[in-house]
Write a structure and sequence with these properties.
The complex is a heterodimer. By secondary structure, chain A is an alpha/beta fold. Chain A is built from eleven helices and 16 strands. The chains are: A alpha/beta, B alpha/beta.
Chain lengths: 377, 287
Amino acid sequence: MKAKRRVVTSSGRPAGAKRMPTARSVRSVIIPEAPRQRVESASASIATRTAVADAPAADIDLRVDLGRGLVLPNPILVASGTFGYGIEYGDVIDVDRLGAICCKGTTLKPRIGNPTPRVTETPGGMLNSIGLQNPGVDAVIEKYAATWATWKVPVLVNVAGESVGDYVEVTRRLEGVPGIAGIELNISCPNVGRGGLQFAIDADAAGEVTAAVRRVTDLPLLVKLSPNVADIRPIARAIADAGADALTAINTLSGIAVAPARDRPLLGNIYGGLSGPAVKPVALRIVYEAAQAVRIPIVAIGGVTELADVLDFLAVGAVAVQVGTAIFADPTLPVRLVGELSEECRRRGLASYRDLIGSALPKRPATPSAKGVEYRP
Amino acid sequence: MRLAAAELVDSREILPGQWLQAYHAPDIANGSRAGQFVHVRTGDYSGMVLRRPFSINTADAATGIITIHFRVIGHGTEWFARLRHGDPIDLLGPLGRSFEVDARSRHLLLIAGGLGMAGVRMLADEAIRDGRQVTLLFGAQSAREVYPSNLLPDEVEYVVATDDGSLGHHGYVTDLVPEYEGWADQAFACGPMPMLRSLARLAEGRRGRLGVASLGRKRGAGRADPLGSPAARRKAFMQVSMEQNMGCAVGACLGCVVQSVTGTPQRVCREGPVFASDELTWDGAWG
């Protein structure tokens, strides 16, 4: 399993090895199931370039293949809920330099969201409980898809729902709409059909919703893991087995804050999701565990605020990262990280950032557990 | 909206725990309007992950100086209070929508509660520049928290109310409003939620009290303007500057909403912070 994973992510070469990006080596990086058409054009454009040892940073190969033909120009994405629909930060950054945009969580019907206050800062992070406020999938398509179609940057629509049927119907409506490059499933939502148990904390429910969505779409499908579980591995496996093309890890950690007068919890919804640098160690642990459990690519998210964070997540097996909370403080960060990652590769003499992936994973896969569920701290 | 580097040029504790700071930020000072705000980054990048929103208290395009006025209430404002002359900060702004003054309005009533002064202070400058008369009603808990009158333009009529009666009217600032509602063409308010709520109620009944409810074809009697549009605010008697915990301040995170009469949440950072008081609902859990 380990060997196959490395073929996917780093051409089977040891991390740090120099490699010229020839058509042949690039081809081997592409996941075999990816549609031929996109693969051909992507590798052809690379083959025409000649890389030299001291190539300028612009020639470093930052492309990342998330499967099903979704090839991102670079591995720095912006996270759902922190970047709106991609238009809000247009005045201060060039969105076309991002790897991808995950839009605000989208549901079948419009939602007005939770009572306020909805956000508060916590040490090294923030809590939010927006409550999936959004105008509904039809309005999202009508308002934004045409704009997205004119952008170079792929836009992934983050999909949320209260039942398997919700997810399926939203996905159906997104299928075939120009400007929508893929779907990211937010499964950290209560499943009304099962007494409000979150899809994301139960391997069967997570697998069921993934499979149902997979059946109705050919769009690249990412599924976002919740950290609020005892063991991520069976859940990650269930999602991968159900046909997801990639995983996103992690969603926010559940938490609360107390109002200044100490007479009630601070957030209008009481519970919020913790994000920011405070959650990075948890995100690293979950990516590390999931990377050893599944063979599909993992997009890491959780507290990325500088290049070192990106490198850490790549080291534990992520193929790309999402920047979220840090955008609020520094909207230019994601675009800057693209340049810094490229520069880091050049400095280390790497032709592709993919050589950085998985360097901190165990050299030999951990012994699979008998039950597959017990937790190893 | 732009990201701008600014430098602290003056910092004064004008009242106990309340600071007035001046920053050299020509990009922001130029073209910002009363009611807009800046979102400022602290220097503690890993500990404090959010920027802090501040109303633009004053802006002088000629000198490129903007001022902000805040009370030290937590780690972020403590950090700002410790800044010294020449220290750089990172501003995002100007953000949000401004107050809208109808061209025909001669008499403007400004109503501020405590730190709400920062929300309406710049409008006094703009109105006086445009030759309008300004009365500013200010409410505080006691005399020691009353905004110094020497920091206001001389042309402003400044009326103070204190909760404990230690200066000016003994009671809430909202008690003073009926006295001025006939004089005022428009009113602009910023302050705590209970104050804004009672002002919104006062504004609702004003036309009836003044006997102009059925005249028609007057301001506000025509076709409804789209929610959040400048016209909707310009036609309103009462405009309020809202406050809410804020994340991104550009409309991306939906953290800072208030509830509108249409049932659609409005973003304080994008559709606001200034709203016509009749655009918002003032009851319910959303307060």
